[in-house]
Write the structure tokens for this entry.
Amino acid sequence: MNADAIQSLRKSLGLSQRELAEALAVDVALVRDWESGEQFATKAHCEAMEKFREHPPPKRARKAKTPMQTLGDPDFWRLARKLLANPPLRAACEKLAAEYDDPLDKDASG
């Protein structure tokens, strides 16, 4: 299994390099080396990865972002710009937001 095949398989399974490394019980640096062509996966590792095609390893739950992490995320601001710049989307968001308490409103937090 060459570097491109390993990366392609990993991406088709929706796994990060770290998740693949954990599933194979190897260091993430080794997976990086495989994908960059610096090292070659052993026959046993290749066979294990091939088995993932039919029986993917379970994905671990990702931690939810904190509010401050969300505010620092460029994708969040890209979404906000799109919502605010499009009048129908903005109106729909305002209508939806009216159903929820403002987290900064002291009366809503008790």
Summary: Residues 67-101 form one domain.
